[in-house]
Specification:
2 copies of one chain form a homodimer. The first copy, chain A, has 152 residues and is an all-alpha fold. The first copy, chain A, is built from 4 helices and no strands. The first copy, chain A, has one domain. Chain A is elongated, with a radius of gyration of 17 Å. In chain A, 39% of the residues are buried. Chains A and B meet through helix 3 of A and helix 3 of B. Chains A, B: Keywords: Cell membrane, Membrane, Transmembrane, Transmembrane helix. Chains A, B: Homodimer and heterodimers. Chains A, B: It comes from Prunus armeniaca.
Chain lengths: 152, 152
């Protein structure tokens, strides 16, 4: 089997997963820490989705790190299919969350200043940007693995 | 070649494309007709994306209808790949537009009543719902065609 860069068990995949975990954790922290995020539906949704993406990314970081540094894990089509489907579903969910957060923040910025005390809206924007980056990396992983699937 | 229902040139695909065109046109009309939609960024984005989805869907409705009723068109992997990529890109864009519109409408409903004179917010909600349905059908088409691709 040829080693397609970016597919499961390669160092490029480890980098993609690592970035995904970092960005989704950053998005979660920007949104959660010391903010009453539950007053807007879109922000609750972002927190829920990122709470799903973080453990998913962490699990796959561990699997990739084991495969790169210790011993190459065997690739089974069934497991690869589950990972592709999970990646695609999570990428759609995180895109939806990022867009909702971005448009809500945009509306809050346009309206009265009182909705954005201090630097609050900047934090919302950063959180949405991190969610977009996480979506992009997750889509990349899904496409690389999808490319590998027919050869198994 | 076996006839996979839902792939390019079958009657199921014609139905999917037809629904996609109907829903995206409905979303566009609900948003555009007699409303000043350009005061919110999310609504402008929805109109832009739906303005891309409608001609794409119409073109493929015509191709499918020709293939079903007149003469079966030959399937080329290159053209199928372009259609799959276009479908995936448009489905991501329309999901993003639908989510932005839905969250903006939700925020407008939660805030002051003066932002939603008459039944305006109901129309925004209907437009977002139509965009979600259009996204779902477009994703379905993309997945069916993606399933067919390795067999060509």
């Amino acid at each position: 089997m040829d080693e397609l860069p970016g597919s499961l068990g390669t160092s490029a995949s480890l980098a993609l997963r690592f970035g995904q975990t970092i960005f989704s954790t950053a998005s979660l922290l920007f949104m959660c820490l010391d903010i009453q995020f539950y007053s807007y539906t879109a922000f609750c949704y972002l927190v829920t989705v990122m709470g799903l993406v973080v453990p998913w990314g962490m699990t796959l970081v561990i699997a990739d790190a084991y495969s790169v540094f210790v011993k190459c894990l065997p690739r089974q089509p069934r497991i690869l299919l589950i990972i592709i489907l999970g990646d695609l579903a999570l990428s759609y969910l995180s895109l939806a969350a990022a867009c909702s957060t971005a448009s809500t923040t945009n509306l809050l910025l346009d309206s009265d200043e009182s909705y954005c005390p201090g630097k609050l809206c900047t934090r919302y924007q950063l959180s949405a940007a991190m969610a977009f980056l996480s979506w992009f990396l997750s889509l990349g992983s899904a496409l690389f693995n999808l490319w590998l699937l027919p050869s198994l």
